[in-house]
Amino acid sequence: MYATRTGVEVAAGRSAEEALAPLARRLRAAVDSGITLGLSPDLGASGDGWATVAELATPPYERLAVLVADAQRRWDAPPHVAAALWWKGVAYWTTLPVAVGWALNRRVPLLTAGTTLVRASELTVTEVAARDLRAASGDDLGEVIGDTLLRGLHAPLIDALHALTRVGRRGLWGSVAEALADPIVSYGHDLLDDPAEAADALLRSIGAPVDGLMEIPGMRRRTCCLWVALPGKDACPSCCVKKECRAGARG
Predict the structure, then answer these.
(1) Of 66, 111, 138, 232, which is least surrounded by CB within 10 A?
(2) CB 37 within 8 A of CB 31
(3) For 61-97, how does the pLDDT look when each residue is reduced to its tens digit (9 = 90+)?
(4) What crossing angle do the helices spanning 195-206 and 169-187 adopt, rounded to 10°?
(5) Which strands form 116-121's sheet, in the order they lie side by side?
(6) What is the pTM of this model?
(7) Are 73 and 112 in contact (CB under 8 A)?
(8) Cis omega (within 30 of 0) on the bond before 156?
(9) Residue 138, φ and ψ in degrees, nearest 5
């Protein structure tokens, strides 16, 4: 374990496994209670079909296009809508262990484009895992989460999805903001005195591009994930608006 900046330490290898053991136990308890997760409790990968986020985000985006095309078939959706819905799953499953680890004991996995793996899943649409896992610990982790998870992992894939389908970046970042807040608000009542305030504090500590995209309490995004663009679907509960949302949200 070594220090990277004031108050934050990074661990690798066995030290990272030990640092993240409480998180793994928490995720295992969720699985044992019947919750279906798009990741294993220890974030490990098994089987084949995986691609790193770095591979998916590399032009000409052939592997990413296959996943978006699968989402198109699944939802009978145009490319930019399929990309937004596929991204919502990727954002959630890559962010959930970070949000839960932060709420649990301020120890979070450092997921990057080169170490994070993604593949299609029948149950959860997308499944994620990690290799060469590292962990960060400290009281003030907002900057670290912003540097690694958002700018290091999410931003390249958001840019790739925009280049491939023209889906709007702001809407994709709204899904990240919700993915950071929702696990804390939904599952942090035994860990935090005020989960909503804690989620808001985490978003503020991370800053742009997620700060300001969630109304907390209330868990309302200031963006639309485009679920409402599917035939016969109403806006999801956290959407910026209800029936006023339309499929043309691009840019």
Answers:
(1) 232
(2) yes
(3) 999 999 999 999 999 999 999 999 999 999 999 999 9
(4) 150
(5) 51-52, 116-121, 125-130
(6) 0.92
(7) no
(8) no
(9) 155, 170
Asked whether 96 and 125 are in contact (CB, 8 A), the reply is no
227 token code pair: 């679920």
Local structure of 211: helix, strand or coil: coil
- For every residue of 227-251, DSSP letters joined together read GGGSTTPPPPTTSSSSTT--TT-B-
Percent of the chain as helix, strand, coil, to the nearest 5: 50, 15, 35
State both tokens at 68.
């978006």
Of the candidates 229, 38, 23, 31, the one whose C-alpha atom is nearest the C-alpha of residue 137 is: 23
The mean of the pLDDT values for the chain is 92
Q: What per-residue confidence (pLDDT) applies to 138?
A: 94
Q: What angle do CA 173, 174, 179 make, to 5 degrees?
A: 95
pLDDT digits (tens, 9 = 90+) for 132-155: 999 999 999 999 999 999 999 999
Contact 176, 136 (CB under 8 A): no
Q: How far from each other are the two terminal CA atoms of the chain, in whole angstroms?
A: 42
Q: Give residue for tokens 């709420």.
A: 103
- Round to whole Å and give the CA distance between 118 and 92: 12
- Point out the residues of the chain with pLDDT beneath 70: 1-6, 241-251
